[in-house]
Structures are given as C-alpha cells and as structure tokens.
C-alpha cells in the first residue's frame, strides 16, 4: 500500500472471505509467531491503559453531584422597600442534626458544626432570578444545608418560631428528575 509520500506502508490489512490476513511491506504473509507477538503487545497496551485509568474511577466513586433549583421573588431580601441581592451558603452534610441544632448566628460567624463535610459554597442571587446549581460534593453527603443571609433592620428580631427559622433549610442531596426546588421570598426560604 503506497502512502502519500510514495513510501510503502509497513503493514497492509487485506480482508479475505475467511478472516484477516496480515501482509508485510513486501507482500509476504506473516506467520503465526508474528501474530502472537502483535496480540501480546496489544494486550500489554490494554492493561497499561486500564491501570492508568483506574485512579479516575476511584475519584469518580468518591464524589457525587447535587443540584438545587432556586427561584427568587421580585421583592427578594427587601430592605427599606427595595429588593436586594441575597447571599446563600450551601453546606454538604453527612448528618443534618448538628447543623439544624446550632444557632443561626454561629453559622453566620463561620462555625462548622459536626456533620458538615467541607466549608460552605457562597453564592449570590438577584431578585426575580432563576438559578440551578450543580455542585460536586464528597460521596458521604446525605443532605444539603442552605443558609440565607437576609438583611434585617437593626431593631428587627429573628423570627419567634425558632432562631433562624426560614433562614436555613435542609434538603436531600439529589440531582436529576428529583432535584429539590426552593423559592426565596422577601424574608425566608420556602421549599416546593
């Protein structure tokens, strides 16, 4: 078989009606021993590639993907009658009990309770914005904690039905068809 530069290719493949016959550059058929070595080299290459790719498989198994849909209201985080951007903190949780029990003010101060697998991811959402986040989190993540840093007037107190109620939610760590969806109203997070 001639290459574009006029040289003869090293190996030509000819398909016969009973199988494949390998020919050398001079057109002589190779014998079984040559095919044996070609097969051995191919097997070696296959094993080497498999070993190189195996750490990638381990990495893929040690993380998971979580998704959350957010829908911000037009009066989001209203302060003095004007809507404002809202900062959200997303926590990967192996166990939500300690996260739900800790004071809201401690979370806002940066305290990471037991069961939080890594520091929170901060994000900002604007009024009337729809946002889907997809995060790669540790495999041990069972739920996702979300804390909203709503602005409040200095004289305003936290809600009476528990410190931080409506400012923090815990949702299952899912992605795909069952992706959790949250609505962000003027003063709280609402699940849907």
Tertiary shape: elongated
Q: Give me the CATH architecture of the largest domain, please.
A: Sandwich
| Strand percentage | 25-35%
CATH superfamily of the largest domain: Type VI secretion system, lipoprotein SciN
Q: Calculate the terminal CA-CA distance, rounded to whole Å.
A: 67 Å
Kindly report the CATH topology of the largest domain.
Immunoglobulin-like
Record the strand order, biggest sheet.
6-3-9-10
Class of the largest domain, according to the CATH hierarchy?
Answer: Mainly Beta
Helix/strand-derived category reads alpha+beta
Largest sheet features: 4 strands, mixed
- Round the Cα radius of gyration to an integer and report it: 30 Å
Order of helices and strands: EEHEEHHEEEEEE
- Unreliable spans are 1-18, 157-162
Number of domains: 2
Count the DSSP helices: 3
Mean pLDDT score: 76
Helix content: 10-25%
Quantity of strands, as a count: 10
Structural overview:
The chain has 192 residues and is α+β, with helices and mostly antiparallel strands. It folds into 2 domains: 11-61; 64-191, Immunoglobulin-like (Sandwich), CATH 2.60.40. It has 3 helices and 10 strands, in the order E-E-H-E-E-H-H-E-E-E-E-E-E. The chain has helices spanning 32-61, 97-101, 104-108, and strands at residues 11-16, 19-24, 63-72, 86-93, 121-125, 130-138, 143-149, 168-172, 181-184, 189-191. A 4-stranded mixed beta sheet has the order 6-3-9-10. Strands 5-4-7-8 form a 4-stranded antiparallel beta sheet. Strand 1 (11-16) and strand 2 form a beta hairpin. It is elongated, with a radius of gyration of 30 Å. The model is unreliable at 1-18 and 157-162 (pLDDT under 50).
């Amino acid at each position: 078989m001639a290459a574009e530069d006029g040289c003869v290719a090293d190996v030509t493949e000819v398909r016969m009606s009973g199988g494949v016959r390998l020919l050398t550059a001079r057109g002589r058929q190779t014998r079984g021993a040559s095919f044996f070595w070609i097969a051995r080299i191919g097997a070696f290459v296959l094993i080497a590639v498999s070993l190189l790719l195996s750490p990638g498989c381990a990495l893929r198994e040690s993380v998971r993907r979580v998704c959350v849909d957010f829908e911000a209201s037009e009066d989001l985080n209203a302060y003095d009658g004007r809507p404002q951007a809202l900062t959200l903190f997303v926590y990967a949780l192996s166990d939500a009990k300690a996260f739900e029990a800790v004071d809201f003010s401690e979370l806002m101060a940066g305290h990471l309770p037991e069961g939080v697998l890594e520091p929170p991811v901060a994000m900002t959402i604007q009024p009337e914005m729809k946002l889907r986040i997809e995060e790669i989190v540790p495999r041990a993540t069972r739920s996702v904690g979300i804390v909203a840093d709503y602005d409040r007037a200095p004289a305003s107190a936290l809600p009476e039905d528990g410190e931080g109620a409506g400012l923090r939610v815990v949702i299952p760590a899912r992605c795909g068809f069952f992706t959790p969806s949250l609505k962000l109203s003027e003063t709280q997070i609402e699940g849907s």
